[in-house]
Amino acid sequence: MQSSDPTGPTTKPLNELTDLERADLAAQLRDEQSRRAPLVGQLEPLDNLREEYSQGSSVFVDKIDRLVQDGWTGIRRTRGDGDCFYRAFIFSLLETYLALHPSHSTYLSDKFSSLLPLLTACGFEPIVWEDFWEPLRDLLCKMGPEEKDGGKRKQGEARLSREGLLAAFNDQETNSCIIVILRLITSAYLRTHEDEFSPFLFALEDDPRFMQEGGVVSMRDFCERGVEAVSQEADHLAITALTRALHVPLRIAYLDQSVLPYHDGGGLSSDPAGGGGGGGAVEVNFVEFEEEAARKGEKGIEGALLYL
Known about the structure:
By secondary structure, the chain is mostly helical. The chain has 12 helices and 7 strands. A 3-stranded mixed sheet has the order 6-3-7. A two-stranded antiparallel ribbon has the order 1-2. Helix 2 runs antiparallel to helix 3 (58-69), helix 5 (102-121) crosses helix 8 (172-192) and helix 8 packs across helix 11.
C-alpha cells in the first residue's frame, strides 16, 4: 500500500516505512481529518463514542462504560490539531464559570490579569501579547457583572451564553488568539519557575526536536519549541505549569486500548487492565493536577478531558 499523494511524505509500501516515516504519515492523515472538524463541537452523549468503538477494542469500550457508570454523560470534541489541550482546557473552564454567579468570572479574569506581567518580564512585548489577550479578556468581561455591579459588561447587555461561547471558540481568529495567550502564559510560568521545572527536562534529551550539543535541553529551548510554537501538543510539564499558574484543579481521564501498565515518558502511568473493578471491569485512569488548589476551594473544570 502506498500514499495516495505523490507529494506526501512517502510513496514507499507501508511495510517498508521507518518509524519516523510512519509517524509523519499518521500526522498528515490526522491533520487532513482534523481540518474538517469544528474547533469545538456540540455536547454529545458518551454513547456516541461507545458506538464508534463498539467493533474495536473491548478494553476501550469497557472504559467508556465505566465512565457512564461513574456518572459521566457527555463529551465535547475539539479539533485534533496539536492545540487541542489548550482549547479544551480554556473552553471547559469558561463553560464551568458560566454556570456560576458573574462575580466568579471577574475573579477568573483577575487571575489571568495577574499573570500578564510575567509575559513582559520574560521578554514578550506588550504590543504583541495585548492583541492576543484581548479576545479572552472580552469573553471574560461578557461573562462578568454589569458595570452598575462593578463589572465591565455594559448595562442591559445580556451575559454571554453557552451558545455564544461555542460560537466564539469556533471563530478561527478568536480561537487562535486565545490559544496563543495560553501558550505564552504557560511559557512565562515555566521560565520564571525554571528551578522547579528544569529537572524534568531530562526526559526530552532524546527528542529530536530538542537535541543540542551535549544532549542538554534548556528551559528556553523547550518553551520556544514545545510550548510557544502553535500546533505543539501539551505534555505533562506544560499542563502542570498552566494549571499551577491559574490555580485550577483539573482531572484528565486517559483512555487507551493497552492492557498492560503504560508509561508515556512524562511521569504519567495507567493500568487499563484492571484493579478495583468488580467482575473484571476496567478502571479509568484519572490524572490529577493542582489538587492543593482543589483542597483550598478553587473552582476547577467540572468534567474530564478525554484524551482519545
